[in-house]
């Protein structure tokens, strides 16, 4: 049957064909993602180990992100403190402001904000860089010269993002707490010792572990998504732009899903 004719019964056949084609593409994409991740876990354990490239990528991901992370974290601490004060003042509980800030930033805002900023900056950078290398056939040239491009380009970047996002999260948390302290000190004249005593009194060891685990997962997700989109890009310069854009969107989407799932697991553990 010709799918383009207008005979009765043609439209349902066309719809079934389109639906099947979309499902096929989705399952093929999932299979490609699975093979890509499986190859990473296979390559990461065996030499050669690209230590110089890993250190270089740690510098690019971590050190070069510090100005943006510092400014964003400091502003978040001040803004969150300002927004929380009226609610607590209505109950005469402004003394609990340091505890509220610490719980919110350590448990959720620190890891999440750091991951979102890194997804925008690091994810797009990795996707565009590998995408341009793919469309200009630099990756093919590495394969011809007996160099393993997957280990050199993908493994090093995923490991660097997995290592550096937790470090950036700790730094963001500290800067945010510092911004919150300056705001609290300006309005309530709370001393630095009193502020951080209340901060550490409000959080638990489980909060710190959960924040660290989330940061590691977020870092792995950002690196893996950026590398996958860039490594498998095509269609010339248009593909490079799509790789950078889809790296950011996909990474942010997965980060929110992971945040929801991890939060449910931690709350279940906390309730035990």
Automatic annotation (TrEMBL):
The chain crosses the membrane at residues 61-81, 87-106, 158-182, 202-228, 248-269. Pfam families: MlaE (PF02405). Keywords: Membrane, Transmembrane, Transmembrane helix. This is ABC transporter permease. The keyword Metal-binding does not apply. PANTHER family: ABC TRANSPORTER PERMEASE PROTEIN-RELATED (PTHR30188).
């Amino acid at each position: 049957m010709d799918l383009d004719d207008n005979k009765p019964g043609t439209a349902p056949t066309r719809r079934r064909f389109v639906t099947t084609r979309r499902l096929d593409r989705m399952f093929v994409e999932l299979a490609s993602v699975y093979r890509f991740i499986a190859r990473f876990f296979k390559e990461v354990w065996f030499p050669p180990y690209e230590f110089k490239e890993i250190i270089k990528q740690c510098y690019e991901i971590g050190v070069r992100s510090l100005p943006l992370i510092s400014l964003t974290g400091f502003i978040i601490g001040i803004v969150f403190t300002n927004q929380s004060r009226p609610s607590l003042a209505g109950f005469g509980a402004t003394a609990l402001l340091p505890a509220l800030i610490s719980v919110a930033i350590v448990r959720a805002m620190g890891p999440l904000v750091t991951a979102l900023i890194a997804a925008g900056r690091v994810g797009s950078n990795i996707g565009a860089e590998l995408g341009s290398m793919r469309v200009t056939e630099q990756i093919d040239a590495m394969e011809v010269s007996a160099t393993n491009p997957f280990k050199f380009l993908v493994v090093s970047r995923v490991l660097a993002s997995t290592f550096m996002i937790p470090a950036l999260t700790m730094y963001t948390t500290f800067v945010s707490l510092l911004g919150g302290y300056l705001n609290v000190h300006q309005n309530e004249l709370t001393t630095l010792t009193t502020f951080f005593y209340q901060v550490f009194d409000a959080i638990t060891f489980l909060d710190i572990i959960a924040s660290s685990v989330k940061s590691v997962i977020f870092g792995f997700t950002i690196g893996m998504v950026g590398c996958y989109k860039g490594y498998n890009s095509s269609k010339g310069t248009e593909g490079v732009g799509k790789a950078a854009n889809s790296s950011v969107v996909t990474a942010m989407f997965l980060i929110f899903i992971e945040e929801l799932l991890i939060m449910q697991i931690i709350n279940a553990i906390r309730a035990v």
